[in-house]
Amino acid sequence: MSLAERQPRHDGPPRGRPRSEAVERAIIEGVMKLLEEGVPLAELSIERVARTAGVGKATIYRRWSGKEELFVDVVRAAEPSDPPLPGTSMRDDLVVLLEQMRRRGLAKRSSAILHSVHAQMKSSPKIWAAYHAIVVEPRRRLGLEVLRRGQENGELRTDVDLELLSDLFVGPLLVRSVLHPDADLPEGLAEQVVDTLLEGLRPAGSRPVSSA
């Protein structure tokens, strides 16, 4: 499946006039088409995107405040969608979050366009900052909330720093998908990371909590 065949996703309150899914899809696909043709992010202007999508510039600005937010939505549309958390236990929620990281890592490897876009975003401070604010930080906050609930439910020791603990959980996935992009990302890696860390993080005398 090409990037242009994927569907855009939208979160948060609507901007301006009521959204038209068909129009937004045309705009997202217009950006993807240009990227697949090899046009660098730095050369993608709102005017060029509008011309490719067959819409006016005002139509784009009613939905996105600038090209940084638009490009972030394009990347999100190309990445695997975030699944809902099962909510059965802290352990199960953590496995879902880390499994999604593993899938995103695999997607970047299998899609040359997605890999290229991520690399280009890092060279654009505005786009990279927007990606962090719109995508990365909400995911991090969600992970911290899962850990916080785990402490409240007695699944996790209360004497651990949750910010540090969050880094410990996501670290192995980031190392394998970013620092060592050729490292294995096998099925079951998320469960292995979560279960290994939880062995030393559960309150004394507690039993593992799982839906299995």
Can you give a write-up of this model?
The protein is built from 9 helices and no strands. It is elongated and about 65 Å long. It is mainly alpha-helical and 212 residues long. The chain has helices at residues 21-36, 46-53, 57-61, 67-78, 90-110, 112-122, 125-152, 162-179, 189-198. It folds into 2 domains: 3-66, Orthogonal Bundle (Arc Repressor Mutant, subunit A); 90-198, Tetracycline Repressor, domain 2. It starts with 20 loop residues before the first helix and ends in a 14-residue tail after the last helix. Helix 4 packs across helix 7 (125-152), helix 5 packs across helix 6 and helix 5 (90-110) packs antiparallel against helix 9 (189-198).
Element-by-element helix/strand order: HHHHHHHHH
CATH superfamily of the largest domain: Tetracycline Repressor, domain 2
The name of the CATH topology of the largest domain is Tetracycline Repressor, domain 2
Taking the alpha carbons of the first and last residues, their distance comes to 33 Å
- Poorly predicted tracts of residues: 1-18
Number of helices: 9
Q: SS-based structural class?
A: mainly alpha
Q: What is the secondary structure topology, with strand pairs?
A:
Blueprint: H1 21-36, H2 46-53, H3 57-61, H4 67-78, H5 90-110, H6 112-122, H7 125-152, H8 162-179, H9 189-198
Helix pairs in contact: 1-2, 1-4, 4-7, 5-6, 5-7, 5-8, 5-9, 7-8, 8-9
